[in-house]
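Catalogue entry: protein

Sequence with per-residue tokens
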Amino acid sequence: MSVTQNVNENEEKLLNMILGEIPSSRVAIICDHEGNILWNSIRDNTTSYLTVDETKESLKRSIESWEKRDVLSEKIGKGKYAIVAYDKIKRITVPLPNNHLLFVSLEGEEFGNIQNIMTIVNWVEENMPL
């Protein structure tokens, strides 16, 4: 995958922190609200299960899902993250304050990593505004 636009350098740090601190992370992506990949980081020796086009389609579906969730936010609060579990991976999406979306692919069955990811996201938001 390649960078299609410039991304905030703090978002780049966010991706690097996730790959550095979450051993089961495979891929971390920042995309805009239209589904354009702004930045991505891939763990060394990791082969993507999806093509770039398939990844972009998956991002678009995630964005559409977040748009639908936002309709209910007045009643139930703002969404913090979503997890989709597949046989081979878990995908976590997190809306960022600058209207970008964080997309992380994890290997294995461990769901505890969402706390670690959210700790990193919250630290970056507090210390390095996105």
Observations:
- The chain has one domain: 9-127.
- The helical segments are 9-21, 52-70, 73-76, 113-127.
